[in-house]
Amino acid sequence: MDETLAAPSEKPAAITTGTASEEVQNMNKEDEPMPDTEQNDTSSDSDESDSDDEAQQNLQLQTLETELSTNPSNYDGHVQYIKLLRKAGDIEKLRRAREAMSELFPLSPTMWQEWTKDEASLNKGPDAFSAIKKLYERGVFDYLSVSLWCDYITFVLEFDPSIRELSPAGISIARDLFERALTAAGLHVAEGNKIWNTYREFEQAICLTIDETDIQAKERQIQRVRCIFHRQLSVPLVEMQSMLLAYKAWEVEQGNVHDSESNDLDGISSQVASAYKKALEMYNARVHLEEKIASQDISDTERLQLYMNYLKLEQSSATPSRVQVVYERAITELPISSDLWLDYTRYLDRTLKVGNIVSSVYSRATKNCPWIAELWVRYLLSLERGHASEKEIAAVFEKSLLCTFSTLDEYLDLFLTRVDGLRRRISSSGKIEDQLNNQMIRETFKHASDYLSPHLKNTEGLLRLYDYWAHLEIKLGKDLSAARGVFESLLKICGSMFEAWKSYIAMEIELGHINEARAIFKRCYSKRFPGTGSEDICHSWLRFEREFGMLEDFDHALQKVTPRLEELQLFRLQQESNSTEGREISLKRTPREKRKPGSDITDEKSAAKRQKEAAQNPKKVQGKDKVQLQNSSEPMKVEENHAKVNKTDNTTEKQSTSDKTRAYSDQCTAFMSNLNLQG
C-alpha cells in the first residue's frame, strides 16, 4: 500500500505509470475499430469498386465499338460511345469518335459546345485557337443555336490577340463575326437579343477607348452604337420595352434625350419610333406562339403543328429571312421530321433556287433524313442549278445509293435524275467532255440495270429505264447497234412483257427500219402475253403491214396470225365456258345439299343425351326444362308397353316403331287417346 502511494514520486514509477497509461490507451483502442485498418479496408474496397466500374466501362466501350463497326448509322450508339469516352478521358479516341459521328450526322448544339470546351481546356496557343475556331464554324453550320453563337463570339473576343488589342484588323474580324451571327440568329424572337446586346456592348467598349480629343473618331463610334440600337429596336424581340429604356438612357448620356424613365417615344426620331411600333406589333402577334413553343409539356406532334402555324404567319408577311429563321428553329428541335425538311427545301427552291444556302440545307436534310429519296433527288437538282462541279454531284449521288429507301421506284428515280443531269451537261460542253458524259451515262444505266433488274422484272419502271437508255444511245451516242443491244438485254429479262416488244418495234419504225421491225414481229407474234397482249401483238402486226408493207407482206402476216387468233379465241371461249358452268353448278345446289351431313343424327344424339342427363340428375332440371322432360318421358313409357304387345310384328313394323320412337324423343307430347294398344 505504501509502495503504491509512493510510486508516483519515483522516476521509475513515473516511467512505469507512463507505460501503463499507454497500455490503457491501447486497451481502449482495441475496443474500437482501428483507424488505419478501416482506412485501408475502405481504400481497398474503393479501389475494387473503381476497378469493377472501369472493367464494366471498358466492356461497354468494346460492345459499342463492335456495334458501330457493323452499323455506323446507329445515332444513339454514337452518342453513348462519345459519352463513355468523355467520361473515361481518352482524348484521342474521343476526337476520332466525334469526327466519325460528324461525318454521318449533324451534331446537336450541346455536343458541339462540349467538344469546343474540351479542346479549349486541353490546348492553348495560336494553333489551338485556329482549330477550335474551325470547330465552332462547323457547329454553327449544323443547327441554329444562339447559345453556340454566343460561345463562339466570347471565345474569339477572348483568345484572338488582334481583337484583344483592339487593332483595326481585330475590330474588323469581330464585327464580321457579329454580323454573321445576326444574319443567322438576330431575328430569333426569343433569344436573338443576346447577340444584339453583346454586339452593342462591344462597340460601346470601343467607344470608351477613343481619346476625347479625337472628336471625329468619337462621333463615328457613337453613331455606330446608335445604329445598332436603331436596328435592334426595329426587330420584334423579347424585352422590347427594356431595350427602349436602355436606348433612351444612352441617349441621355449623349445629351440628346432628357427623360429616360418613360416608355413613350418622346425625343426619338419619327423613323425610329415608327419602326419600333411596327416591331412591337409584330412581337405581340407572335408572343402567344412563342409561349406555347417554349412549353415543355407538349408532344413533338403538337410542337411541329405550332411551328407550322408560325411559318404560315411569317410567310404571310413575305419576309424570307424571318421564314428561314423559324424553319431553322423548327429543325433544331425536330431534326428528323422528314415533312419539315421537305417543306423547308421546297420553300427555298421557290424563293432562292440557287446558292450555297440551299445546297447547305439539302446537305443537312439528307444527313438527318437519309431514307427520304425525294430529298436526295432534289439535292442533285439543286447542285445542278448552282453549277456545282461534276465531282461534287457524283459524290452526292454515290452517297445516296448507300441509303435504304422504302421502294425500288425511289432508287429508279435517283438513277434517272442522275442521267438527266449528265444529258443536260452535254449541250453546254465540248466534244471531249461529250464523250466522257456519254460514257458516264452508259455506266450509270448499266449500274441501274444491275441494281434494279432482279427486282423490277416485267415492270413498267424497268421498261422506262431501258427505253430511255436506248433512246440516248441513238440521240447522243449515234450508236444504233448499242441501242438494239439495250433492247435485246431487256427482252432477256422481260421477254413475256408485251410492252417491251412493242417499244423495241416502235424504235425501229421511228428510225425507218421496216424490215427490222417486221423481223421482231415474226419473233414475238406467237408468244403468250398477259391479258390481251397475245391478240394485241397479232393485230399490231397486221396494222403494221397495212401501213408499211407490200401485199405479199400483208398476206404472209395474215397467214401467220389467223390460226394464232383462232387458237386464242378458242382458248378464251373455253375459259368463259368453264367459268359459266362453275357458276351454274353453284346456283343449282339445293339448301339440303348445302347443309352439313349428319346434322339430324347430331340433333337426335343431343336430345337423347339431354334426356339421359336429366334422368340421372332430376334435381338439376328446373322450370321449362322440367316440364319438357315430363312430357317426353310419358310417351316413352307408353311406347315400351306397345312394343311388348307387338313382339311378333315384322321388320317393317319395327322400323315404324323406331321412327315413332325417334319422333317421341324429340320432346313432343303424345296423347293416350291416339295410341292403339291392341295387337
From TrEMBL:
Pfam families: Suf (PF05843)
Signal peptide: none
Listed name of the protein: Squamous cell carcinoma antigen recognized by T-cells 3-like
Alphabetized UniProt keyword annotations: mRNA processing, mRNA splicing, Nucleus, Repeat
One annotated Gene Ontology cellular component of this protein: nucleus
Biased composition (Basic and acidic residues): 596-613, 636-663
Residue span of region Disordered: 1-56, 576-665
A Gene Ontology BP annotation from the UniProt entry: mRNA processing
Coiled-coil residue spans: none
Biased composition (Polar residues): 16-27
Domain Suppressor of forked as annotated: residue spans: 61-560
Cellular location(s): Nucleus
UniProt cross-references to SMART domains, sorted A to Z: HAT (SM00386)
Composition-biased stretches (Acidic residues): 33-55
Keyword hit for Nucleus: yes
InterPro entries tied to this protein: HAT, Suf, TPR-like_helical_dom_sf
